[in-house]
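Researcher: I need the complex structure. Ligand is pyridoxal-5'-phosphate. Inputs:
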Amino acid sequence: MEITARPEVISLAGGLPDTTTFPPESFAAQMTRIAQESSAEALQYGPTEGFERTKDVICEVMGVEGMRPDRDDVIVTTGGQQALDLIAKTLLDPGDVVIAEGPTYPGAVPVFCSYQADTRQVPIDEHGMRIDVLEETLDSLAAEGTAPKFVYSVPTFQNPGGATMSLERRRALVELARERELLIVEDNPYGLLRYEGEALPALYELDGGDYVLYAGTFSKILSPGIRVGWLCAPPPVMEKVVLGKQAADLCTSTLTQYFVGEFFGEERWMDYVDDVVAIYRGRRDAMLDALERFFPAEARWSRPEGGLFVWVTLPDYINTTDLLAKALRENVAFVPGEAAFTDGRGSHSMRLNFSAQSEDEIREGVRRIGRVIADQLDLYRTITGEHRMVEPGAAAAEEPSADVLPLRRRPRGERD
Ligand SMILES: Cc1ncc(COP(=O)(O)O)c(C=O)c1O
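Model: Output:
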């Protein structure tokens, strides 16, 4: 976040939605209405479980994705991040095994680590988590006389991998959970940000909420600044989660829950989601084009149908944590792949975000990273005397071409 705040840096690092897309006049009108009509209530504490009005909105949003949660199974949390923290707090003792995808959401890594979980990571491919490898992992854990407390998955437009779990694997995972009485934690911040293809049912819908706990958030469809997310869990888990939340922060901000109520009270909320989807689709395409153009032929990357990220894998002699230091000198940032693993893997991968920058900035950012990679490749070849195995298909080492616009320096705080 510190890097992102430096105006000269093109940050492809954070998972920031573009909040400049939210009309300031709507924000002003909604907050004014709250101040005029519900000032005392909005400035007060609220129930730990969240307001009924917020839960109605949550049920409506989940309904758009085909889910029908029971309102009593929903708790409002301080962002989706707190939902993950509360699950871990409720279910984990030190040394308990958690299974996550490899790579997994970088923000989940400190959660599992801080509760001293033994996190095992099951690889993903373009169809999401490898359920065959998951079964093998469960078998070998059973042979050791243990079982995971839960399996954590971001099945739709995975952060950071960009992959979406296929319907076949979703069904297999839910079936496996039933057979083995295994809890699944489905984390779904991006489901409504689809740029192409057909929507798939959530694990929560397929399972009916028996073995699948569900974490959601308003961060990517409204605003991360409001810090409102939620968790759906069956009553025995929910009881403990509520105690955990009381200990953590008593309740989620009343003021921002009122804002959620106002925003979703307007029929047009889905229009706003459609607007950001159109903008992010253009940015995703700009990033995929730029990768084709500026990254070397040895690089591989995901082609996400939605969400906010592309996952890039480079030759294994390039360490992306080292590369980041060099990229920062060129005023461009990304997330090194190691952040998405608990065991040091991912060192030649990187996560690139395409929602937070304009299409021109994305092209320029990718071009700069492409140059830094090209320098590393040249250095490697000079040291090892190896010739190029694959000719670069991209123009990584070329001078900027005509359609790369020189960007003016932005004064602090100003957005294009
Ligand atoms: C997969 C995933 N889960 C949870 C979160 C947490 O989001 P928030 O706490 O803003 O709701 C994020 C944010 O980027 C995410 O990508």
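Model: Summary of the prediction. The CA atoms of residues 297 and 392 lie 4 Å apart.
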